[in-house]
Design brief:
413 residues; alpha/beta; 5-stranded parallel beta sheet; globular
Length: 413
């Protein structure tokens, strides 16, 4: 999403509900309900309905008219107003006055803070032609958006000549592993999990972090699907699944390869699918045959029977013509070899032809084809055109940002 709702502008404001002067008579305007989109870095992209009274956001709830959101929000966003108007929310720059970790800070003005930062950056830049490469911007998406998240800060640091930072250091390995395996970051549609007959939740505490996927998983469960959670921790999600496989952290690839081994020796394979839609199967097959359940069980810290039973469940879906789905998440790729773990897991659906079913396959992060298909150069070009038009129309100051947001949406069609 590019355009956030007006409600987020209210929620991000500095006005505090508790600062109203009760002694002053102010006409009370009718409450408004503003429809918008959640700005957080989350695959659900929920539709929000924010109640606004006299410029103050008083309540945020899920939009019941939006099929995916269906009126439900995660705990974090459902309590948006509590955090926004919390008395301990930091609203002013704080400068450290003591040693790191001491918690000693003093409030300073914005002018003082910006002057101090500019002086430090200038001092580094003055050391030599390439000195600004010692400056490393460290940030990520915040509340998303092409302008505030992916444009203005980058323009500043590019002009400064600072070092580059991959915009997401939390998901790069897994995302690249998926792209190397499937061609790009694609995956199942979340709503189709409701039709699956076997759902493997691999490295995801979905109840806490992917509420709307979990709702679809519960629909599948009520319709007879089996849910298996693979996670080192016994999470809330693991507790609600039929089985929990608690492997050691960082051993996911070993488990995936052992599953391939079992699928191969029992011939639980869709040979036609492998022949038509895969590359490198023979090399993959040879490598997987080195990973017996015994070898992988010792590495993963689980039993041989757990591996064999999981392979039976997965291979059985091919025999019965039922859809099997895997829901991965990024926790499993934040270890050494995490990218290859994602690659190994992403190969599994091809072995049993799970992609033949719309309720089969794998999902790492909800794909956004429109955004993925647009090259960065096109986005930059649209931003430049929007800025030029704003200048021509004499739009300045705070009015520039909403103009850019609306213009970029218009240009992107």
């Amino acid at each position: 999403m590019v355009v956030g709702s007006k409600a987020h502008y209210y929620a991000a404001g500095l006005t505090m509900a508790g600062m109203r002067d009760s002694s002053t008579s102010i006409p009370i305007r009718p409450a408004q309900q503003i429809v918008g989109a959640c700005p957080h870095d989350c695959p659900d992209t929920c539709s929000l309905v924010t109640t606004v009274q006299d410029g103050i956001a008083t309540q945020v709830h899920g939009n019941p008219a939006h099929p995916h959101t269906d009126g439900a929000l995660c705990t974090k966003v459902a309590r948006y107003t509590e955090r926004t108007y919390h008395p301990e929310r930091i609203l002013h720059p704080l400068k450290r006055t003591g040693p790191k970790g001491s918690g000693q800070f003093e409030r300073v003005s914005w002018e003082s803070a910006l002057t101090d930062i500019a002086a430090r950056l200038s001092a580094i830049a003055s050391r030599g032609p390439d000195a600004t490469q010692a400056i490393q911007p460290y940030s990520y998406a915040g509340t998303m958006g092409l302008v505030q998240s992916e444009s203005m800060a980058a323009r500043f640091f590019h002009q400064l000549g600072a070092s580059f930072l991959n915009r997401t250091i939390c998901a790069t390995a897994g995302g690249e592993g998926l792209a190397q395996t499937l061609g790009r970051k694609v995956g199942m549609r979340v709503e189709f999990f409701a039709e699956s007959k076997l759902i493997i939740i691999w490295g995801s505490n979905s109840i806490a972090s992917n509420l709307h996927f979990w709702r679809n998983a519960q629909v599948a469960k009520r319709n007879g699907a089996k849910l298996i959670c693979i996670d080192p921790r016994k999470t809330e999600t693991a507790d609600k699944c039929h089985e929990h496989i608690a492997l050691r952290p960082g051993t996911d690839a070993a488990l995936a390869l052992a599953l391939m081994h079992e699928l191969i020796i029992h011939d639980w394979l869709d040979h036609d699918y492998l022949a038509q839609y895969t590359l490198g199967w023979e090399a993959m097959r040879a490598h997987a045959m080195e990973w017996t359940p015994e070898r992988s069980a010792a590495i993963c810290g689980i039993t041989v029977e757990q591996i064999k039973a999981l392979a039976r469940d997965y291979g059985g879906c091919l025999q019965r013509g039922e859809p099997a789905a895997i829901r991965m998440n990024y926790g499993l790729q934040r270890v050494r070899g995490g990218g290859n773990a994602v690659r190994a897991i992403a190969c599994l659906p091809a072995l049993i032809g799970a992609w033949r079913h719309r309720a089969g396959g794998v999902l790492l992060s909800t794909p956004v084809p429109e955004a993925d298909a647009m090259p960065r150069g096109e986005i930059d070009a649209m931003t430049e055109r929007a800025l030029a038009e704003a200048a021509q129309q004499g739009i300045t100051g705070k009015a520039v940002t909403p103009f850019l947001l609306l213009k970029i949406v218009e240009l992107s069609g």
